[in-house]
Amino acid sequence: MRLDIDPNLVNLLVSYAANVGADATRWVAGKFRQRTDGDADTSVATLNLSIQAQLSASGVRDGDAEKVAAFILDTPILGYLFMLVDAGKSGDYQDLPRKEICALLILEAGLDEVAAGVASQVLVAVLQASNESSSRSARRSGRRSRPLSGIQLFGAQEAKRRLLSKVGSPSLSDIREYSSSFRREMGRKFSRIQLQHLDNGTEQQLEDLYVEPELRLQEPSAAQRPEVKPAEVITLFARAVIQGPAGSGKSTTVRRLATDVANRSNGEVVPIVVELRKYSAQQALGPQIFLEHIRQSVTQLMQQAPPESWLEYLLATGRAVVFFDGLDEVLSAGTRAEVRDAVITFAQMFPASSIVVTSRYTGYDLAPLDKREWTHIGVEELREDQVHEYASRWFKLKDGEADIGDRAKGFIDESRTYASDLRSNPLMLSMLCSIYYARGD
After folding, report:
1. Which of 10, 259, 424, 433 is deepest in the core (most CB within 10 A)?
2. Which position has the higher pLDDT, 118 or 220?
3. Contact (CB, 8 A) for 300 and 275
């Protein structure tokens, strides 16, 4: 049907998306935005009423129009919807954004199939007009997220549709309550780290030892390798691969990112960590096995099974960041390729959720992820100032504040002379600290 879209609604939506960082160019960061009192100001209230008016004029019942407007203003994936509709301009994908938005309205707004079908047509038209307007006005600022390709967005459309149809009408209140408890447990679990060579494996607070690594984009030219802050791995990139040598801190970075996601005050996004070494021991591999593996891990952590469709809901609505840790730890090259393919299909089934994979450089080329679709980020060696900071933190854990300066300085001076190449690796640096301390120097 032909829709006449209110230009004032378009202007309000473009302004709102730009203000909250949820447009198509910053769609990943938009999932993590902090809700503020400003979200409920007069302009947002006007936008809410304008969305309802546009829907009502198109035949959507008032009660359903109110639910759809609330969905648009509350969803963490508004930027994803902008990108989805923009990708659907191609003839190959034209009707797919509407179908996905329709499924989301049934799932999140509680609309019936007929109402969701009409409302999704209206939303696609509004989002298309808003995309065109924002492109003309060039209001976007800041670092942009890489858009997903058509195959990434729509490559597993049938599998995704079948999965969403099985979700049914889950209890969103139960899902939110369980998610809140799960975030607390993940924050507790991943905020601690166990070092086997420190006090016989005693757990330590990650915050006490953590030194932020230097990460750089893996571009062909060294001059084109801008630095990436660890937090930006999940706020800028929907699909990322963190690479580095053994002991360079890849898994520690995952722990820190998972903790940060779990402790975010807006409480929308859940961190999920999959240790690929454990997953690859399964008898069968594939994206559905990932889902079952994650469910089992979650149940073990929580000592309680999640609500029905909890995991599928989070993944389908962009409320999850999934870390696949240790692709290199899948030792068989053939099995590694199977795991890689399962990760790709999993990512296609849940394009709204963010995916991070870690791997050593060694052996990665046997089963790599496409650099055109996955942003590759390298962990750099520790700089001199980072070595100093880590050593100070390590010896403070052992000695407290007493004599920390002398002990750390002695270690730094000696290790510079005899092990300067080894101490640029975090794992080796920690072991050197342990050896130095055990000598009683």
Report:
1. 433
2. 118
3. no
pLDDT at site 53: 97
Residues of the chain with pLDDT > 70: what percent? 90
The closest alpha carbon to 209, from 221, 227, 218, 197, belongs to: 197
The conformation of residue 293, written as its DSSP 8-state character, comes to: H
Buried b (16+ CB within 10 A) or exposed e, 173-188: eebeebbeebbeebbe
pTM attached to this predicted model? 0.91
Interval 173-225: pLDDT, tens = 999 999 999 999 999 999 998 765 656 667 889 999 999 999 999 976 556 77
- Amino acid identity of residue 407, one-letter, is R
3-state secondary structure of 192: strand
The more confidently predicted of residues 60 and 199 is 60
| Sheet containing 375-379: order of strands | 227-228, 215-217, 375-379, 239-244, 354-360, 320-325, 270-275
State the Cα–Cα distance between residues 243 and 369, nearest whole angstrom.
12
Q: What is the DSSP string of 210-245?
A: --PPPEEE--SSGGG--EE-TTHHHHT-SEEEEEE-
Report the candidate in 35, 131, 45, 48 with the shortest Cα–Cα distance to residue 76.
35
DSSP 8-state symbol, 284: S
Cα separation, 77 vs 27, in Å, equals 7
Q: 3-state DSSP call for residue 360?
A: strand
Which residues on neighbouring strands pair with residue 357, listed in sequence order? 241, 324
